[in-house]
Structure formats: structure tokens, C-alpha cells
């Protein structure tokens, strides 16, 4: 398996101990799309942050492409995040005083095997807007820039936390379609969190999380093109 999450747990110690993940198992093949569904507070972002090396598990293991992430020390985790993982969030987190191209170059300049900035700009359909600033773009266009920034490093894994959460229906569908295209064009494995179960159809595998446990796993043999998804 390309991504194997095994018996993952996470607890937070505040006044009391809160167990947010209670033994989560996930398996994902290389080049696949996985959707994680679940209500607010079910542990989706916590799970993604551990897979992305931003947060640490309490117990259990995460392996990606033969590398056991849960064994890495802090320096190794920094390297792992920089080289292997692309992040896309609900809010685009672009640097406001850098142009579109510069926002992407910031990442490609520190990557070992980056794609060409112009190639990813073309892939996301923004070649003609490369010299604009984020404030001169629509929300959907800004999310395209954040996807370009996430994929320019040629990551093993693209992690998307509610990537369409701030967008209207048609713009959401365009962004989902772009993610599907990135998956095909670059062979990027994608893990996407969403509240929207209509999006499940475009995933090879769907995990439904409930109170920190996997409540349901769905394998789709045929994938729905994003353009045909309706909600
Ligand atoms: N640092 C922390 N300390 C204590 N509890 C935390 C911490 N971070 C998250 N939690 C708790 O863990 C639970 C899961 O949070 P998480 O952000 O993973 O949920 P989520 O499924 O992503 O929800 P949403 O859909 O609202 O984004 C929540 O109950 C949250 O309050
Ligand atoms: Mg979340």
C-alpha cells in the first residue's frame, strides 16, 4: 500500500484527556483519490494533520511509500513536509504582496524535484494571470493558485482540507475537476476532506469518520467525473 494508516490514535490533554482518534485504519493505493467524510469535530483535520506531519499521533503508525512517518524526528518531519506533501486548505493562505507566479516560486525554489512553474500555471489554467496579485483574483482562481503551489514541488501526497468550503457550487465543481485533472496528469495521490457527500463519487475510496472512528468504507469501481457531480 502506498499510504497505510494503522490503529492511529490521538488524545489531547487539557483539564481532561480527550481522545479524538480512536484506532483509525486507512489504506490507499498510489495515484488514487480518497475522500474523508464526517461531521464537524469527528477528527478529520486531526487525521490529515498527522498524515501530513504537522501533528503527532499518540499511538499507531502512518507509512507513506515505505517511509514510516510516525517514527520521524522533528527535523525529518520538516524535510518530509517540504518534499513529500502538498497542502490545500479552505482559505487559500496566499502571500498577499507576492504575485501568482511568485507565490508558487517560493515553494519551487526550495524543492528538490519541482515541476516548472509555467507548467503548473498552465495546468491550473492561470498562465495569463501569473503577474496578478491574489486580491486581483476571484476565490476560485485563488484556490487554483493554492493548488498550483501545492503541486509544484511534485508531492507524493496532496492533502486537501475542505478545498471547496468557501466556494459556490460552480466554482467548487471547477476546483474538483482541477483536482481530478491533477490526479491524472501528474499521478498525484489525493486525500480530500469534505462535509459534502456528493463529492464521494469522484473518489476511489471513501472513509466516513464518526467520533474518531471509521464508521464506513466505500470502494468505488467507477469514478464520477467532477463535472457530473451535483448537490
Ligand atoms: N489542540 C487541541 N486540544 C484539544 N482538543 C483538540 C485540539 N485540536 C482539536 N481538538 C478537538 O478534536 C476534535 C476533532 O477536531 P478536528 O479539527 O479534527 O475535527 P474536524 O472533523 O476536522 O471538524 P471540522 O469539520 O469542524 O473541521 C474536536 O472535538 C476538537 O475540539
Ligand atoms: Mg477540520
Automatic annotation (TrEMBL):
The keyword ATP-binding belongs to this UniProt entry's keyword annotation: yes
Output the Gene Ontology terms for molecular function: ATP binding; ATP hydrolysis activity; transmembrane transporter activity
The record's listing under CDD domains reads: ABC_MJ0796_LolCDE_FtsE
Ranges for domain ABC transporter: 3-230
| Keywords (A to Z) from UniProt | ATP-binding, Nucleotide-binding, Transport
- Keyword DNA-binding listed? The answer is no
GO CC, alphabetical: membrane protein complex
> What does the sequence similarity comment in the record state about its family?
Belongs to the ABC transporter superfamily.
Q: Which PANTHER family match?
A: ABC TRANSPORTER ATP-BINDING PROTEIN MG467-RELATED, LIPOPROTEIN-RELEASING SYSTEM ATP-BINDING PROTEIN LOLD
Q: What is this protein called?
A: ABC transporter ATP-binding protein
Species in which this protein is naturally found: Ktedonosporobacter rubrisoli
Amino acid at each position: 500500500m502506498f499510504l497505510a494508516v494503522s490503529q492511529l490514535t490521538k488524545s489531547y490533554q487539557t483539564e481532561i484527556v480527550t481522545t479524538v482518534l480512536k484506532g483509525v485504519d486507512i489504506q490507499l493505493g498510489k495515484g488514487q483519490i480518497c475522500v474523508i467524510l464526517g461531521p464537524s469535530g469527528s477528527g478529520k483535520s486531526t487525521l490529515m494533520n498527522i498524515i501530513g506531519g504537522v501533528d503527532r499521533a499518540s499511538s499507531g503508525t502512518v507509512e507513506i511509500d515505505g517511509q514510516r512517518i510516525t517514527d520521524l524526528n522533528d527535523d525529518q518531519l520538516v524535510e518530509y513536509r517540504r518534499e513529500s506533501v502538498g497542502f490545500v486548505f479552505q482559505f487559500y493562505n496566499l502571500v498577499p504582496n507576492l504575485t501568482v507566479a511568485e507565490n508558487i516560486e517560493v515553494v519551487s525554489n526550495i524543492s528538490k524535484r519541482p515541476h516548472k512553474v509555467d507548467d503548473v500555471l498552465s495546468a491550473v489554467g492561470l498562465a495569463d494571470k501569473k503577474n496578478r496579485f491574489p486580491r486581483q483574483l476571484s476565490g476560485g482562481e485563488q484556490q487554483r493558485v493554492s493548488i498550483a503551489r501545492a503541486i509544484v514541488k511534485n508531492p507524493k501526497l496532496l492533502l486537501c482540507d475542505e478545498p471547496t468550503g468557501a466556494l459556490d457550487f460552480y466554482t467548487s465543481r471547477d476546483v474538483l475537476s482541477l483536482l481530478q485533472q491533477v490526479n491524472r496528469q501528474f499521478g498525484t495521490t489525493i486525500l480530500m476532506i469534505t462535509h459534502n457527500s456528493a463529492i464521494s463519487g469522484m473518489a476511489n475510496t471513501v472513509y466516513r469518520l464518526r467520533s474518531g472512528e471509521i464508521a464506513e468504507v466505500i470502494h468505488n469501481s467507477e469514478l464520477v467525473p467532477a463535472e457530473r457531480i451535483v448537490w
